[in-house]
Each structure stands twice: as C-alpha cells, then as structure tokens.
C-alpha cells in the first residue's frame, strides 16, 4: 500500500505474467487487461468469466531496502477455492529467481508437463544489478502508458539502467520497444536505427527474449524487409505463444499489409483472447476487418471501442480513414476533428469541424493538401496523410507525387497501400504499382 513502491509491485506483476506466458500449455491474460481489476471488489467468479480464465494469481510484495518478500496464491475462479499458496524471500538482486520459483510452483500445482527448455528457463533466470533493475521497473511503468512523452521518459530510465549494468538484456529489449513505438506513432522513422541497435544488443545478450524478436520484426517491417520480419515474428511466437503484443503486431503490421486477411484476423482474435480488455487490439481488429473489405464487422469493433471509451484516440483515426474510403466526408471530418482534439491540437480541430456539413468543402481539402497534413502537429506521417485530400480533390497526379515524397521519407503508413481499399483508385496507375514494388508489396 506504499504509493512510492507501486511501480515495483506492478513491475513484479508484469514479470510474473511474462514467466507464466512462456509456458506453452497455459493461456495467460496480458497485463493491460488484468490491471483493470487492481483493487477491484468484483467477485472472482465474475472476473473469471470476464477474462475467460479458470484461475487467478493473487499476491503482494513487501520490500525493505534490498530485501524482498513475495506472497502468492492461486485461486480457482469457479468456486473461489485456494489451490496453492506460498511465500518467498530474498535479496533484490535475486528477485527474478524468486519470480521464477513462484511461476514454476504454479505450473507444478496445475500439473503441467514443462518442456526441458521451459524448466531450464525457470531454473536459470538472469541476474541483474539490483539498482539497475529498480530503474528498469520505473521505465517499464512509464513505457506501459504508451504516450509519446512517457516513451521518451522511459528511454531515459532504460539508458540509466544499461549504464549501470551493460549486460541488462531486458533493458535493451525495452529500449528497442520504446524506439519502435516512437517510430510507429510518435516522432517518425528517425528512431528505427535506435530500435534495431538495441534489439540486436538484447539478442546478442539473450536470444530467448520473445519481446526483442517482436520489436526487431516491427523494425524490419518499417524497413520493408518482409522476409526478415516474418522470421523474427515466428521466432517470437515460438518462444512465447502467449504474447498478445506479438500476435497483435504480427496481424496488424505484417499479415494485414500483405493482404493475408484471414490470417491477420485470426492473429488479432488470438491477441484479443490473451488481452480481452485491450482497446488497442480491438481497434486493430476493426482495421483488419476493414482491410479485408468486411466493413460491417469493422464498424462493430469500432463501435465497441467507442462504447468502452469514446476518448480512445486510435479508433477516431481509423474511423477517419474508413469514412474517407466511403466518400463520407462529413463523417470523416467529424472523426478527424475528434482525433485532432484528443491529440491536443484544438485549433486545427476547430478549423476542420467547421467544414463538416458545409456545402463547399473544397477550401478545407485544398488547405489540408497544401499544408501536407501539418495542421496535425501531434501526428507524424504528414505527407502520407495528405494523400487523402488529393484524392478527395480528385487529383491523382498530385496524390502520386505526394506518395513519392512519402516514400523518400519512409513514412510508416506506406506499408498499408497495397491492402487499404482507400487506395483502390490509384492501383491501376503504373507509378503506384512501382512504389508498391519498392516497398516490397508486389
């Protein structure tokens, strides 16, 4: 109950989830879903039904200086029956070993037959400098918030962690994740070299980290190296089949852009099973349906996200794209305005909103195209976003020119041009087809 130690308790939860998720025979729900039940008063049978699980691990951590005591219990959700409970105590430097002992005890209690590799992983946990591990947990707490500002702050913590312990593979893996997310959603592809360098460093130190393979796979997608991306996604899934993020990114970043729609939808549904309350996964599933031409299914997912949290920014971006593809510009402008408002760009949001429902929207389209989307200061990929306005103005030549510029900037949105129905009117164009080839989509 010490607010100053909350990051440590949450970090322990995260690491224990990771340990258990590495067991192939278990289905382990991801942290983003289970943390919504922190301090809840809901009865366990209800939680079990909502998450689709048979048992819940409850516990606490008590920390005093460099000593740590972990108590944990396994409870069957159907009848609230305690199946197992124990306590473990040790030095902070051995905290990963303590977590591994808890995870192994749980798997033994539910009578799982662990493979030799899984058993070895429990018996040979990594050892890190205690002070570096503490800094690392603070970074993970920030990184999990997923905002651009928090990702940059997390990078600073992870840098401090590897400075204290140059062999801290988990910290390098987390650095790679932060830089990958910044490349995708924040400051653009300038972070890709940092993401790859840290992923490579983590792999050199420990090839068994599924998260690092996932991060490197995402980097390879954005570098348009599709075979290498596939290799690392498959390696990550082999190491940790319970990683919701791996299933999510494999479906959304790799299979969807390549037009393998049935597989993409299946991967995102699997991610949803592992993280049933994640609005990000639900939004991405909607986008996968949209790419597959299943618009009704896409809208159902988007509406569910809005019903859960109407301020969830990504779903408004997806809806903006969807309505534009249908030439439903009033709705598209409304969603774009909402997206801009939630991004903190109030002025641009008001400018866009005033054109929704207007008889002549051409003035706005021309302004947005001319500025190449830079009215949205909070979102990168401005040239790629400007394509929408050239197509709305029925200027395919200008759209192709913008696409060439976007290619030179290596903007992330390019990976979707072969699959997104929005670009159907440009596909017969030989220049468009040439860009598809250069991005590796043909």
Description:
It is a single chain. The chain has 442 residues and is mainly alpha-helical. Helices cover 61% and strands 7% of the residues. It has 22 helices and 3 strands. The chain has helices at 6-21, 31-34, 44-51, 95-109, 116-123, 130-143, 148-164, 169-185, 192-205, 210-222, 226-239, 244-255, 261-274, 279-291, 295-308, 313-325, 329-342, 346-353, 362-370, 382-392, 396-409, 430-438; strands at 55-64, 67-76, 81-91. It has a 3-stranded antiparallel beta sheet, with helices on both faces. The chain is globular. The termini are far apart. Residues 373-379 have low confidence and may be disordered.
Categorize the overall geometry: globular
From the N-terminal CA to the C-terminal CA, the straight-line distance is: 56 Å
**Strand order, sheet with most strands:** 1-2-3
- Supply the helix-strand structural class: mainly alpha
Fraction of residues in helix: 55-70%
**Unreliable parts:** 373-379
Query: Kindly state the mean pLDDT as a whole number?
Result: 86
The helix/strand series, from N terminus to C terminus, equals HHHEEEHHHHHHHHHHHHHHHHHHH
Total helical segments: 22
Strand content: 5-15%
The biggest beta sheet is recorded as: 3 strands, antiparallel
Rg of Cα set: 23 Å
Number of strands: 3
């Amino acid at each position: 109950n010490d607010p100053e130690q909350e990051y440590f308790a949450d970090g322990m939860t995260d690491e224990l989830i990771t340990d258990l998720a590495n067991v192939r025979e278990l289905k382990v729900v991801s942290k983003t879903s289970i943390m919504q039940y922190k301090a809840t008063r809901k009865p366990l049978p209800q939680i079990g039904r909502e998450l689709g699980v048979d048992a819940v691990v409850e516990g606490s951590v008590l920390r005093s200086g460099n000593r740590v005591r972990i108590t944990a219990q396994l409870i069957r959700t159907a009848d609230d029956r305690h199946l197992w409970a124990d306590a473990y105590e040790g030095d902070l430097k051995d905290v990963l070993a303590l977590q591994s002992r808890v995870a192994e005890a749980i798997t033994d209690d539910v009578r799982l037959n662990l493979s030799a590799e899984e058993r070895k992983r429990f018996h040979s946990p990594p050892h890190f400098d205690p002070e570096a591990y503490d800094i690392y947990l603070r970074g993970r707490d920030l990184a999990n918030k997923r905002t651009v500002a928090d990702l940059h702050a997390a990078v600073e913590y992870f840098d401090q962690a590897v400075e204290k312990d140059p062999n801290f593979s988990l910290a390098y893996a987390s650095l790679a994740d932060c830089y990958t997310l910044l490349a995708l959603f924040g400051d653009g592809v300038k972070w890709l070299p940092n993401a790859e360098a840290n992923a490579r460093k983590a792999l050199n130190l420990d090839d068994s980290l599924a998260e690092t393979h996932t991060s490197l796979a995402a980097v390879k997608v954005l570098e348009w190296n599709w075979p290498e991306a596939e290799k690392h996604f498959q390696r990550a899934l082999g190491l940790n089949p319970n990683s919701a993020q791996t299933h999510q990114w494999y479906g959304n970043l790799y299979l969807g852009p390549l037009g393998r729609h049935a597989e993409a939808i299946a991967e995102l549904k699997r991610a949803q099973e592992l993280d049933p309350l994640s609005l990000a996964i639900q939004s991405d599933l909607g986008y996968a349906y949209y790419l597959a031409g299943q618009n009704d299914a896409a809208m159902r997912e988007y509406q569910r996200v809005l019903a859960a949290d109407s301020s969830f920014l990504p779903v408004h971006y997806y809806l903006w794209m969807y309505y534009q593809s249908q030439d439903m510009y009033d709705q598209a402008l409304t969603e774009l305005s909402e997206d801009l408002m939630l991004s903190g760009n109030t002025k641009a949001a008001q400018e866009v909103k005033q054109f929704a429902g207007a008889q002549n929207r051409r003035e706005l389209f021309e302004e947005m195209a001319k500025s190449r989307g830079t009215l949205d200061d909070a979102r990168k990929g401005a040239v790629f976003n400007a394509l929408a306005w050239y197509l709305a103005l029925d200027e395919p030549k200008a759209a192709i020119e913008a696409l060439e510029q976007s290619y030179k900037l290596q903007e992330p949105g390019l990976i979707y041009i072969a699959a997104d129905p929005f670009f159907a009117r440009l596909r017969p164009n030989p220049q468009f087809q040439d860009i598809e080839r250069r991005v590796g989509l043909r």
